[in-house]
Amino acid sequence: MAGILSAITLAEAGLTDFTVYEKADRLGGTWRENTYPGLSCDVPSHLYCYSFDLNPDWSRLYSPGDEIEAYFERVAHEHGVVPHVRFGDEVVSCVFDDGRWHLTTAGGVHDDVDVVIAATGVLHHPKYPDIKGLDSFAGARFHSARWDHGVPLDGARVGIVGTGSTAMQIVSAVVDRTEKLSLFQRTAQWVMPAVNPAYTAEEKAAFRADRHLMEDLRDSVAQLFDHFSDGIVDARSPEMAMIEQFCVDNLENSVTDPELRERLRPDYRAACKRLVVSTDFYQAIQKPNAELVTEAIEGVEGAGVRTVDGRLHELDVLVLATGFQVDAFVRPISVVGRGGVDLDRVWVHRPEAYLAISVPDFPNFFMLNGPNGPVGNFSLVEVAELQIGYIMQLVDRLRRADAREISATPEALERFEAARIDAAGNTIWASGCRSWYLDDRGIPAAWPWPFREFRAQMAQPEWEAYELRG
Ligand code: NAP
């Protein structure tokens, strides 16, 4: 998504000498990697798309994953991105020397470039759980982001580990196909209710005839998300109280068995963990063939999962919906900046970047959806568009030959980090739960200010935050 966006933006600015490096043999990013049943995006599709290529044909408010992937592929083709893509070869190192970046791929290609835009995504490398005996399972076992479509689910006994957004989507999609579905819940999740109406042929025709309708819809959804961001960055805000009430009401009104309801009730505040949005999870988990398993997992055996109460949950298929390594960002690419500074060393404790874009001593190296940016219940497409607009202003300084090297100053990063950590304490993410938003110190790593503040910051660089050389 972000790589395609970068290519289109560069070409529009008249910069046609660029290469998009894609390690896979197809475009699509997260929408290519994730193909699990029920995959969809819980950001409405009219916001989760490029502002310059609105799509009248979205099938639903929240469209399914394959439709989103097809959208990005179509845009890439129509905007002439594909001839710029080098497929099937992975960048393994980027070294800054003599004022240029020297890229090396696994296939042995060496390229010298002036600017690197890292559009490598956030939630990319699967995280496998450390569960005893996992390898001994005799049935089919895979991570949700490595779905094995050759494994039959119909009539199977399926176990799912995890209760994040991924697991919830899978449960709803597969429960009716399985003989038995066991959801292994370590931590309960708050679920934001949603409806997902299909767009009618008339609505799509109206969108096609008048793009303002799509723009208006996009604006109104963006406003809702702004209110949401106002809530989550201020745990004491009335917006946050509203979000919580929606979730509590959803649980109270949807789950009839009081015992199950209590087992599904989290002991922390809504949106502390990344909020799950679902039209039908509670309905799915109440089906007669579904079981919510809340006893901790003791280990995995040939026949299934054994929980600490001694019970063996016999399974044919075990799905690990256990999330991603969230602090990898551009890594495992080896990135070496000015004076031999190694990004792995700079990020030895945790990744950080000024405004999520630039790291001191890594000149002309800019990140999209990098560390400390807005993640979670937002449109990462909107985030990336704002970021590329900002990055292009940095690139412009290089083009105008004001400088040959540009990167954030250490002082700017230090100031940003101090303010960010201070603000992070007010967010709902810091209200007491375990989540992938928290860094190794337990401090929320995501952008801790309202989304409109992000828009304002991305509108124009504060040039004193940058060091220009050469
Ligand atoms: P996740 O939110 O990180 O959830 C991982 C789940 O696995 C958690 O429930 C976790 O339990 C559980 N888990 C991990 N290790 C375990 C172990 N050893 N034993 C038992 N349980 C274990 O991962 P995800 O659901 O793949 O979602 C990741 C992110 O992707 C989301 O937060 C969201 O940002 C994005 N996403 C978005 C959408 C969308 O519609 N936009 C859809 C899917 C995913 P604990 O809670 O106890 O740690």
Outline the fold blueprint:
Elements: H1 2-12, E1 20-22, H2 30-33, H3 65-78, E2 85-87, E3 91-97, E4 100-105, E5 110-113, E6 116-118, E7 140-143, E8 157-161, H4 165-174, E9 180-184, E10 191-193, H5 201-209, H6 211-232, H7 238-254, H8 258-264, E11 276-278, H9 281-285, E12 290-293, E13 297-301, E14 304-307, E15 312-314, E16 317-320, E17 334-336, H10 343-346, E18 365-367, H11 380-399, E19 405-408, H12 410-424, H13 451-459, E20 466-469
Parallel strand pairs: 1-2, 3-17, 6-18, 7-16, 8-9, 8-16, 9-12, 10-11
Antiparallel strand pairs: 3-4, 4-5, 13-14, 14-15, 19-20
Helix pairs in contact: 1-11, 5-6, 6-7, 11-13
NADP nicotinamide-adenine-dinucleotide phosphate is lined by residues 40-43, 123, 129-131, 144, 161-167, 169, 184, 186-187, 274, 297, 321-324, 376, 434, 436.
Please provide a written account of the structure:
The protein is α/β, with parallel strands linked by helices and 470 residues long. It is 31% helix and 17% strand. It contains 13 helices and 20 strands. The chain has helices at 2-12, 30-33, 65-78, 165-174, 201-209, 211-232, 238-254, 258-264, 281-285, 343-346, 380-399, 410-424, 451-459, and strands at 20-22, 85-87, 91-97, 100-105, 110-113, 116-118, 140-143, 157-161, 180-184, 191-193, 276-278, 290-293, 297-301, 304-307, 312-314, 317-320, 334-336, 365-367, 405-408, 466-469. A 5-stranded parallel β-sheet has the order 7-16-8-9-12. It has a 4-stranded mixed β-sheet with strand order 5-4-3-17, with no helix packed on it. The protein has a 3-stranded antiparallel β-sheet with strand order 13-14-15, with no helix packed on it. β4 and β5 (110-113) form a beta hairpin. α1 (2-12) packs parallel to α11 and α11 runs parallel beside α13 (451-459). The longest helix has 22 residues, at 211-232. It is globular, with a radius of gyration of 23 Å. The two termini are 33 Å apart. The mean pLDDT is 97. NADP nicotinamide-adenine-dinucleotide phosphate is lined by residues 40-43, 123, 129-131, 144, 161-167, 169, 184, 186-187, 274, 297, 321-324, 376, 434, 436.
